[in-house]
Structure to design on (277 residues):
């Protein structure tokens, strides 16, 4: 059991789980727009997500404690390095147009962790995008929306129409809501200078905001030119599931409540779609 627990913790801490969520949302986009399964895009997104998330999460630790890294962190670094190699392999299979698009999001990820701007723009000493007051949740939602909606469609030369734009807005809103249980959990740790949503409006108002965003997320579906009688009920089920997790989220939540269950909802969404189709 101890070995399984360590493997599971590595699965979470090395960002495999969150990468599967990004992978799932990307595949959902292909399904929604009737684009065939695209191996190179999906696996690029998966390995890039692991590489990017681990870079952001562990850059500071590795930078200042590189001589005394624990075996756990060394394992994450080695794993991330191989994921980076796979990311490069699948990236080279993509079109130059897609790579230019990826470059923009790669730059955002890099600047999210690396100090690069004048001190006067920040409320702490880190000087990176992550430290700008109130920006974090919206930046993550923007990147997820861009990567999981536009990237696979650009690679497949799909025309960016009104339905695509609505889907991108839905995805942005979805990620905002999925982030709220994390924001509530992190009230114990986050500096007040970060001005996260729960810090600014409180836990109760954060949940109300999340409920309203979920309503927007679901009803945007009916503004699309094509409404699918299979996908829409599944979308409703996922919306209700997110709602339940949001309502029951709290500051002192279980270790895996957000990092496994909430973050796993896009994976469940994909599984339901694959079963239905």
């Amino acid at each position: 059991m101890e070995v399984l627990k360590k493997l599971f913790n590595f699965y979470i801490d090395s960002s495999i789980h969150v990468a599967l969520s990004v992978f799932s949302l990307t595949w959902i986009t292909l399904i929604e727009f009737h684009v065939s399964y695209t191996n190179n895009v999906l696996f690029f997104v998966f390995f890039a997500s692991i590489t990017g998330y681990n870079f952001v999460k562990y850059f500071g630790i590795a930078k200042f404690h590189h001589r005394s890294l624990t075996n756990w962190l060394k394992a994450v670094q080695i794993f991330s390095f191989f994921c980076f190699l796979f990311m490069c392999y699948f990236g080279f299979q993509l079109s130059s147009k897609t790579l230019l698009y990826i470059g923009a999001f790669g730059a955002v990820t890099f600047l999210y962790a690396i100090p690069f701007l004048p001190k006067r723009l920040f409320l702490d000493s880190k000087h990176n995008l992550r430290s700008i007051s109130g920006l974090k949740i919206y930046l993550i939602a923007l990147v997820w929306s861009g990567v999981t909606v536009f990237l696979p469609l650009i690679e497949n030369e799909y025309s960016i129409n009104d339905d695509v734009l609505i889907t991108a807005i839905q995805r942005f809103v979805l990620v905002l809501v999925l982030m709220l249980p994390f924001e509530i959990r992190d009230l114990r740790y986050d500096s007040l200078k970060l001005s996260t949503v729960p810090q600014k409006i409180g836990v109760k108002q954060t949940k109300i905001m999340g409920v309203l965003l979920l309503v927007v997320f679901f009803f945007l579906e009916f503004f699309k030119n094509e409404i699918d009688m299979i996908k829409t009920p599944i979308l409703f089920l996922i919306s209700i599931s997110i709602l339940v997790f949001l309502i029951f989220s709290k500051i002192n939540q279980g270790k895996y409540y957000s990092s496994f269950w909430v973050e796993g909802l896009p994976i469940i969404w994909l599984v339901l779609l694959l079963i239905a189709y």
Observations:
- The mean pLDDT is 88.
